Amino acid sequence: MMVLLLVLPLVGALLMLLWPKIAPLLTLLTATICSLAALQLLLQVSEQGSQQILLAGWPSGLAISLEANSLSCLLILLTTVLQLLVALYAFATYRRDKLGTGFWPLSSLLQLGLTSLWLSRDLFNLYVCLELLGLVAVALVSLSGDKAIKPALNYLLLSLFGSLCYLLGVAMLYGAYGVLDISALALQWQTNILSTAALLLMTLGLMLKAALWPLHGWLPAAHGAAPAPVSALLSALVVKGPLFILCLLWLQLASAPQAVAIAPLFTGCGLAALLLGGVSALRTPFAKNMVAYSTVAQLGYAMLALGLLLRFNQPLFAAALWLFVLAHALAKAACFLAIGEITATLGGKRLNTLKGASQTMPLAMFAFAVAGGSLIGLPPSGGFLAKWALLQGLWLQGDQLLWLLAIVLATLLSAAYVFRVVVLAFDRADPVAPDFAPRILPQWLALLPALAVWAMALYSEPLLRLLKQEGL
Amino acid sequence: MTDLSPQLLLYIGTAAGLFAIGLYGFIVGPQTLRRILALNIIGAGIFMLMVVLAYRGLADGAADPVLQALILTGLVVAVSATAFALALLARLKQARPGQYRPEQEPGP
Amino acid sequence: MSPFWQQYLPLAIILSSLLPGLIIFTLKETQVKLRISLNLFGVGVKLLLVLLMWQAVKAGQQFYFSLPFLPGADLVLQGDALSLLFVVLSSVLWLATTIYAIGYLEHSPLRSRFFGYFSLCVSATVGLALAGNLVTFLLFYELLTLATFPLVVHRGTAQSLAAGRKYLAYTLGGGVILMLGVALLHSLVQSPLFTPGGYVTAVVSGNEGLLKLAFALMIAGLGVKAALLPLHGWLPQAMVAPAPVSALLHAVAVVKAGAFGIIRLVYDVFGVESMHALQLAQPLMLLAAATILYGSWRALSQQDIKRRLAYSTISQVSYITLGVAMLGPLAAVGGLVHLVHQGVMKITLFFCAGNFAETLGIHKVRQLNGVGRRMPVTAMAFTLGALGMIGIPPTAGFISKWYLGLGAAEVEQNWLILVFALSGLLNAAYFLPLVYRMWFLPQSMPWPQEQQLSNRFETHWMLLTPAVFTAVLLLLMGLFASTELSPLSWAELIVEREFRHD
Amino acid sequence: MSLLLFDATLCLLLLVLALASILSRQLVHGVILYIAFGLMMALAWARLATPDLALAEAAIGAGLTGALCFSALARQQLHLPVVLSWPQRLWPAVFVLLMLGGVLAALLQLPPTASPLVDVAQAELINSGVSHPVTAVLLNFRSWDTLLELVVLLLALLGALQVAPAAKATTSWPLSLSWSRLLAPMVILLAGYLLWAGASQPGGAFQAGALLAAGAVVLRLNHQLNWLRWSNFWIRLLIVSGVSAFVLAALLAMLLTTDNTDVIWLRWPPQLAGGFILLVELFATLAIALTLTLLVVGEPAAAEQAQQNSGGEAHD
């Protein structure tokens, strides 16, 4: 099953390169099959426990090891489903939006990169996956043509720098312990300058790639310039890849003193991201940049949860962390698709374009509002589940009023930027006239993930069980 | 303080130095091409560190094959990324011809 | 009644307005008949289901429906006596408001959207009433915010957008604070079902500080919607909404949601015993009393009719809070029954104010002179409502104030009687001039914007009937307060069940 | 001692070249210095007993990257040198020095012994199907890395083609044309040798591919091999074949696996491992060569136009 999930997008991408004409259909096909396979894998893993593979059948240490635990499977499922959804959206709009033929193979390769990243438990293999992911992401951004070249180049350079920092860390760890497999490494782990320095270097690189505050500068421009389906994929999935590795490192490798020592960094950065990202989202005049800044802010929650998890070692924070990741992925995909569809139809990049959108494009606007509800954390959305877990954890630790205050502020900020758009949409004074008749299908496609993130709440029990199954 | 031989120390120091030089170039270098070069120098420094690590202990007269393979992979990845970056750069230049200003512009 | 029904009845009650609402969203503007029939069908089904439940609850049955949600806090809908009080109120008033809104919005654009959100709003209110634990309550509380926002900004003018922003800022802020409080309480005792007598008693010792904090947070969160003193700022502004929306906001949905939440919090979460142990009643009482006086005082100086009514709401809703906070059985009866009475009275007043505005273009107090001759029926209904608000027998308002006064005496808080008296005077001072102008002053200027909405009646029959209906209702509730069907006896039933446990 | 002196000189040279490449006023000088740096690096690696890598670094780090940079330089105008103010130089320098200090302090703790994996790899070498340990790691022990690496290379080509500006037509130079015709067969022979040697000696797919690419680039710049472009289906097929042969071989290997053992992704059947690896390498070499060639020379303008047109028609 794992092999299928890895091979199919790759083969698909190769076929698309050979015969570009069938690429859209092929993408849909592979994405559908992969989604089903991912579901199957998730069910298997949740019943029988995690599966491990030593690739090529060599002994542990020599071989690259893959592990499908419930978290990985969940992330794979998320990846494939969003891939399918975005492919559908792109299929419905690519003629109108002049999406390059390059989109299809690239998106399949993106799926390959993500899937292998979620599965891999080998430090160097993760490096290759990261590079793959970074290059695909940049190539996808550059699909937008001239306006996207500069952000894409900037993204690429920073992403390369991030990878190199990570690689240096890997080299140091290999030099010290002689293994690359994470679980093997964890067994021999010692707390010393070398391991700390390696961890810090890798953290620097990964934070840069995941656009975690204060290294987020490249993100709004790149995500804002990309075509809508691409922004959806990037914001929803790509930034989560490095975050996943970051969590692997700190949760599985780092020793307790190291984890406790780094915790303030993550919580502090998370807090700053939440507040400053929110303020930026509130101030930017461009619609897509607003959504992009919101990604910066929302990643702050994940970072905050990670920091608190490292500090208190409370499983609720782990649940919060991954719930944030899942909920944000779905909600952000919906936001980008909805905003992309609206701006494409109403013709303009500025937020003012959205004036009166609740009349001209009610479905897309509804999708945005519903997804926004999850970003704010209104019950019963996925975002609420995550926030609830975070609050529970904080109250259980007691005396964490500062964090609670920050969460309240962050929630209000996110409400402010979401409703800034919604209020504009309800402005009936002089609505912006659409350039052409709004299309229904893409709007529905934008609505789907938004509804999914609210439906997440109904599956909170199994979700939490799955997430607790893994200590990660 | 350290168990490494002087020769290894020398090379390790050089590797770290290259990393630092590249880092400086990456942060400061005003032209994009220079920053790409700087990235390559960082990469070279890291690969050099890995080569030294492969060389140390020299079992049976052969350096650590695993590390060598990693370096080869890394080299290819690095050159691929460089090629892509240069292609982007070329496009950027073409998109706004005739401009002689340095690329250090205020962000968007 | 089969257990199957018992399980799904609460859900069905919510769905009976939710589903028509969702379908209405998809309708075109021109499908007027289909929309109206759907709306009325939903109302009818809901009333029927509520009746069924009412019968059963009276007989002592419980309804219970749950979905797994958070660990330790399922999504629970339960029908007990207290929730039914609110459900009945909202469904009956929904009927009236729907008819009114159909008439009111007859020719305005975007009606599908309006009625869609209207139904969502009622669904959220009913869900809130039926919520079986704090987490479920929180969920519907937030949904209510979301569903009402589009109604507040429905007109889409700069003024209404500004009001909408303010409304959101207040209510979402309140929502977050409520969430904090709920989360805190959940971390202490989980979120079990609402139980008469509360469920925190067991953990009081050792957690006093945290419990007080949780209570304060939740009161602050609920206080936003209930328009408690420092948190009332959104309410007068939200007046820009169309009249049926204001009616709904003030009488049923938003403000009452806050008040209802306070009732639940005090009786079914903390319980009388813990409230005493934690000494929480006194501050709440002070707050409510201050709000009562402040609202009345501000209402005096308002020249816009709807604004005056809005400040009156701020004051009147705090009667409920006050009744609850006194923690005595009689006061509780007064507070609970005022939940219903105030709803019916206030909705009457808003219907009438809407009628004046729609038919004659009257918005200001001074324009009311002589309206009694032009629109006698509406003016009569308005007068009844105003008398009720002041608390003059035999209207419903008298009953609730009587019980509140008795309750204050019972718990020996005599200063409250003074508050009631003062507030009653203020009520009279701002309502009686309106009545006087309508009936006893001659028309002093031409009607600002007169419209001929009907040939036979003084205004469109769909605008008139709801006002008359609620006016009659409030009179009946006062006259037949001692019968078995009245809200009063139902409130007594609730209080008996609440206080019986100890 | 003299060896240590040699080492010290080499290291110093490396550092100076790198610094000069970063600080030189003219970009052109920077690129030239970088190429020199790459060559020195190759020398250093050869000194450190890693001839495979030295070969690769010379081909890639110096040769290919240099060529790419030059072609990028050719496409842009010369920049006026930018003069940076002191704070602009100072603060980064402070930051870099701090970081250098930290990294050095950490690196000093490295143990002098080799990784335990070396012994494992040596022990398993006989089962790998090849006798050269690096090849064994690349194409058998850690073949998944290599497969992904080929994908990355392919991806770089895709990205580059997608953003490629229309290339300027250059006139060829008669002398180089005749030379290149002579050069081509030799290059192919040499590449074939490198590929074959990879199984037991230094060499392998990538080095061979790079060499082939160098030959092709020379020819291509002289307007030979005009069929060598992305829009040509067969070229696409060949480029893609590097990855697809790998995948197909892996799938075939899964099929061939006998029933009593678990089916494992990328495991070559022990008896046939050598054959599989050679097959994979052969296609990889061709694909690498073509990919690199296209990366350096880009897609000819006319052909790109034609492709876009046909692509556009197909979807409209």
Automatic annotation (TrEMBL), chain A:
Compartments, as annotated in UniProt: Cell membrane; Membrane
Single GO MF descriptor: lyase activity
Ranges where the NADH:quinone oxidoreductase/Mrp antiporter transmembrane domain occurs: 120-412
Membrane topology note: Multi-pass membrane protein
GO-annotated cellular components: plasma membrane
Pfam families xref list: Proton_antipo_M
InterPro entries per record: CPA3_Na-H_Antiporter_D (IPR050586), ND/Mrp_TM (IPR001750)
Highest taxon, organism lineage: Bacteria
Keyword Cell membrane belongs to the record: yes
Transmembrane segments: 68-92, 124-143, 155-177, 197-219, 231-253, 259-279, 291-310, 316-339, 360-381, 401-419, 440-459
Alphabetical keyword list: Cell membrane, Lyase, Membrane, Transmembrane, Transmembrane helix
Main subcellular location: membrane
PANTHER family linked to this entry: NA(+)_H(+) ANTIPORTER SUBUNIT D1, NADH DEHYDROGENASE
Family the UniProt entry places it in: Belongs to the CPA3 antiporters (TC 2.A.63) subunit D family.
Protein name (record): Formate hydrogenlyase subunit 3/Multisubunit Na+/H+ antiporter, MnhD subunit
Organism this protein belongs to: Rheinheimera pacifica
Automatic annotation (TrEMBL), chain B:
Topology within the bilayer: Multi-pass membrane protein
Keywords: Cell membrane, Membrane, Transmembrane, Transmembrane helix
Entry superkingdom: Bacteria
Subcellular location: Cell membrane
GO CC terms of this entry: plasma membrane
Record's keyword annotation contains Transmembrane: yes
Entry's transmembrane regions: 6-29, 36-55, 67-90
Similarity field: Belongs to the CPA3 antiporters (TC 2.A.63) subunit C family.
Protein name: Multicomponent Na+:H+ antiporter subunit C
UniProt organism field: Rheinheimera pacifica
Upper classification of the organism: Bacteria, Pseudomonadati, Pseudomonadota, Gammaproteobacteria, Chromatiales
Automatic annotation (TrEMBL), chain C:
Membrane topology: Multi-pass membrane protein
Assigned keywords, A-Z: Cell membrane, Membrane, Transmembrane, Transmembrane helix
Domain called NADH-Ubiquinone oxidoreductase (complex I) chain 5 N-terminal: residue spans: 75-115
Protein name: Multicomponent Na+:H+ antiporter subunit D
Transmembrane parts of this sequence: 6-26, 38-57, 81-102, 114-132, 138-155, 167-189, 209-235, 247-267, 279-297, 317-341, 347-365, 377-403, 415-440, 461-481
InterPro entries: CPA3_Na-H_Antiporter_D, ND/Mrp_TM, Proton_antipo_N
Family of the protein in this entry: Belongs to the CPA3 antiporters (TC 2.A.63) subunit D family.
Species, as recorded: Rheinheimera pacifica
Pfam families: Proton_antipo_M (PF00361), Proton_antipo_N (PF00662)
Taxonomic lineage of the native organism: Bacteria, Pseudomonadati, Pseudomonadota, Gammaproteobacteria, Chromatiales
Automatic annotation (TrEMBL), chain D:
PANTHER family: NA(+)/H(+) ANTIPORTER SUBUNIT B (PTHR33932), NA(+)_H(+) ANTIPORTER SUBUNIT B (PTHR33932:SF4)
Domain MrpA C-terminal/MbhD residues, every copy: 12-76
Domain Na+/H+ antiporter MnhB subunit-related protein: 180-293
Membrane topology designation: Multi-pass membrane protein
A single Gene Ontology CC term: plasma membrane
Organism, as annotated: Rheinheimera pacifica
Keywords assigned by UniProt, alphabetized: Cell membrane, Membrane, Transmembrane, Transmembrane helix
Protein name, per record: Uncharacterized MnhB-related membrane protein
Annotated compartments: Cell membrane
InterPro entries per UniProt: CPA3_antiporter_subunitB, MnhB, MrpA_C/MbhD
Organism superkingdom: Bacteria
Annotated transmembrane regions: 28-46, 53-74, 90-108, 147-167, 179-198, 204-221, 233-256, 276-297
Family named by the database record: Belongs to the CPA3 antiporters (TC 2.A.63) subunit B family.
